[in-house]
Amino acid sequence: MADTITIIDNRTGKKYDLPIQHDTIKALDLRQIKVKDDEFGMMGYDPAFMNTASCVSKITYIDGDKGILRYRGYPIEQIAENAQSFLEVAYLVLKGELPNKKQLEDWRYNIKMHTMVHENVKTLMEGFRYDAHPMGIFISTVAALSTFYPEAKQVRNAEVREKQIYRLIGKVPTIAAFAYRHSKGMPYVYPDNDLTYAGNFLKMMFKAGESPYKVNDTLEHALTILFILHADHEQNCSTSAMRVIGSSECDPYSATAGAAAALWGPLHGGANEAVIHMLDQIGSMKNVPGFIKEVKDGKGRLMGFGHRVYKNYDPRAKVIKKMAYEVFEVTGRNPMLDIALELERIALEDEYFVKRKLYPNVDFYSGLIYQAMGFPLDLFPVLFAIGRTTGWLAQWEEMLTDPEQKISRPRQVYLGSGSRNWVPTIDRK
Length: 429
Ligand code: CMC
Known about the structure:
Layout: E1 4-9, E2 14-19, E3 60-63, E4 68-71, E5 74-75, H1 76-82, H2 86-95, H3 101-112, H4 119-126, H5 134-148, H6 158-184, H7 197-206, H8 217-229, H9 237-246, H10 252-264, H11 271-282, H12 288-296, H13 315-331, H14 337-349, H15 351-355, H16 362-372, H17 380-400
Helix pairs in contact: 2-17, 3-6, 5-6, 5-10, 6-7, 6-17, 7-8, 8-13, 8-17, 9-10, 9-17, 10-17, 11-16, 13-16
This protein binds carboxymethyl coenzyme *A.
Carboxymethyl coenzyme *A (CMC) is lined by residues 236, 267-269, 271, 295, 301-308, 356, 358, 361-363.
């Protein structure tokens, strides 16, 4: 059986055989379909990229119907269970294979050598108002790094790219913690490279005064897992932003800032913050049925539910839900957990949600853990961005080294006015 598809254009009766590869046809092959020779030719129309593959990738595999997520072939459940550190998983996501002992040591060393930020970065951050949203500070500061490392624009140089990858993965926790401490009016705490990626971040966030800060093992482990679960998620909104911006061959700091901006919205990485606002608004268990009714009546969404790709339980939400109980053993139970569990119970039985295949996603329980750990709500998207920086960079590297990729430039279907003559102001109605 030939791997082709035959299209008959009923406008002309002409028949076209298009090759099929990996269950896709090349959109450019549609261009030959036209009524008249001087026409542009046919295109695919796909607002929001519901059914368009924009790249080939070897990084992350998702089967949304079955609730499967794998990084480089390894199931997320196995990774969460066995990984010793976030940086081990970052290596896997970026380089494609699990590191051996030496590779991991070198990788850790290289990243830890880049956890400090230039003192001028601090000055820059001090310029923000005391009540500036930390995600705004994070995005702006990451973008500003391009001015500190002008060589970063040499994106066709593999060595230069690698150096910026070390810098970005090394510095994002530092910038995130400084953004938080800025909003609290607290002095910044410098990175401690003897600690793990998550442990160092906790210390930079929460160390108070001169007393030594002891990292809690359970919370460090929980944060490591949360960073791991957020490390990559194939061609989502922010990753697509990273690829599109990076395709113009700008430096990776500018592209990462753009990706982080895309992440900030409440339909993407801002959803974990929105979940807590929603739970807060519901307030008590007795209000849950009324809230569900409002959602079903179209007066708002059940935040932390639903996903463009998952039409089953998000495997990351399963890991997080289990971990929540371990965290609450240390921090005390988040009183909003019961409301969340009740929402989930009702939604998983209710026809509205069942029919639309709306299940809890990664953001439904992560906010409850972050909150119990003492992170303020407006830092939640920043925490997401720390983990996801690895994925953005892996996708950026893959895009730049893929010979099929070019500058991103979608087409449009123009439905505006035809050509018309300019009207002087005096003659306008
Ligand atoms: N609550 C209530 N109804 C919903 C929800 C929800 N959370 N999500 C989707 N629906 C309904 C929607 O109204 C529509 O119904 P109908 O067919 O009657 O018009 C149907 O389900 C399909 O929804 P859609 O908006 O066409 O689906 P989408 O693939 O465009 O949107 C989504 C995906 C994640 C934006 C959406 O499910 C949503 O807004 N969820 C809440 C926000 C959220 O939790 N976002 C985090 C996503 S996971 C992490 C990440 O990517 O950052």
